[in-house]
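Minutes, project check-in

Agenda point 3 was the complex the collaborators sent over. CS summarized: two entities, 539 residues total, and the question is how they sit relative to each other. Sequences were read into the notes so everyone works from the same version.
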Amino acid sequence: MGAGDACAGVYAVIANRADFPVLLPFRPGTGGEGFRLSAWHGAAVVTALVFAVALGEAHAQAGAATPSILATMLKWTPLLAEGFALNIAMSFLAMAIGTLVGVPLGLGQISLMLPVRTSSWFVTQFFRNSPWLVLLFYCMLLLPFEVHIGNTIVPLPGWLKSTIGLSLPVMANVSELVRGAVRSIPYGQWEAAESLAYTRMQTLWLIILPQCVKRMTPPWMNLYAILTVATPLTSVVGVSEAMTLTGDILSSEGRTELLVPMYLYLLLWFFLYCYPIARATLRLEKRFQVR
Amino acid sequence: MNWTPDQPLVRIRDVVKRFGQLTVLNGISMNVHKGDVICLIGPSGSGKSTLLRCINGLVPIDSGSILVEGQEVHDPKLDKLALRRKVGMVFQQYNLFPHRTALDNVMMAPIHVLKRKRDEVEVQARELIRKVRLQGKENSYPGELSGGQQQRIAIARSLAMNPDVMLFDEVTAALDPETVKEVLVTIRQLAEEGMTCIIVTHEMGFAREVADRVYFTDGGVIVEHGPPDQLLSAPKQDRTRAFLDKVL
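CS then shared the predicted structure for the full assembly.
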């Protein structure tokens, strides 16, 4: 038996028996990539918030009989919640559109037809490497404010246009996730399916993609968290989401000592929403890795 | 061409296969008749596994001819799927589908590829799992089975397609020593039932026991072939003897 065979054999035995992640095959796409929220970030925001409120209160008490910072924050909470709901709605919709278009695009990247493969690759790389804000501006400026479908007029409000803008980078990232996940499936799976007379389509749908779903879930959730914290970008193009509303609240209150606590308060909303997602992602990753 | 059972089931003539500059198969010829059990032995890189992959069309050949039941495997017009229904293959790494249970692994191809009825396939699949002595493991996932058990499910999975010939590619090379035997017993049982088998193996004792003929390949050619007792005990060629001295 030659060295190559011996290695393959030993490797297989080790990979089967031991659960050390370090011995498992490298799987692109599921590794830790980019920024992750940790409990420390939350603790920092809360501490800063408490500190800022306390400082602001001290300042306010020294002045005239203005309402306390806490009371002001509470007063505006329902409005802020409305804005935040729009952020979440946009994140849901952008993720849905991005995934629905991104999955076929990713499959296009592994197509056997060269033109399909090349164009899918190009579209993916183009949108993956464009700044999100630039894409947002493009969508705001290029998409019409309404579209005519037959005789009905469908209005395209700003929030919808910017949601489409946000879904473009999501689409490109999902496309890369799909491509990476398909490539991370061992070649033996393709070979086994081929030898059992599966067609390429059957292999993809019955064998390869079901295994990809599991591998793609953690990075996909991570992408969703990143998308959610990116939704305040739409305030730059005038969407009335939480960030814009916070600005409006501050200008209507006209109290400088509110500035820091209000933005920290907004940060806390996003943190409370995204942190559980980050935790769940981490847990799923750990569970899938040791297999 | 009309094939009749008295002709070779697999007829290989002057097959050449190159990977870039490397010639892996350099003029291989052999005949395999129905019911034959052939063992291929030889050093790693001598092209044994590649030859198996050429027989079921997983790897294209550069020249020569491979006929399976009279059909040219490397005819571009050949229905590859029809060919692969006749030729079952078992791999060194088992390659079970990890997201499906053992029973599903066995049932999927007949249902989706052969479009057979699920009930009927399930009866056959359970029968095959019993045959490889893994009854009770139907609902286990591959990750929950030992290497030897996975390999036996892989054999059942291939058999579910009712192939005419089975190819075994170093099926015990990745197994723990204590589970090698259970897999070899399964293959021997198949061979005794008359299944045509082409087996690439490093288990010389097994080859001696089960094979009708043993082929020794080295450097992309068949150096020598013959009945196992003769080839393994009294090889005519020096290269064969040198190899056997190393492994026995």
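Noted in discussion: The interface with chain B takes residues 1-5, 8-9, 12-13, 16, 186, 188-189, 191-199, 202, 206-207, 210-211, 214, 291 of chain A (CB under 8 Å).
Follow-up: revisit at the next meeting once the mutant set is ready.
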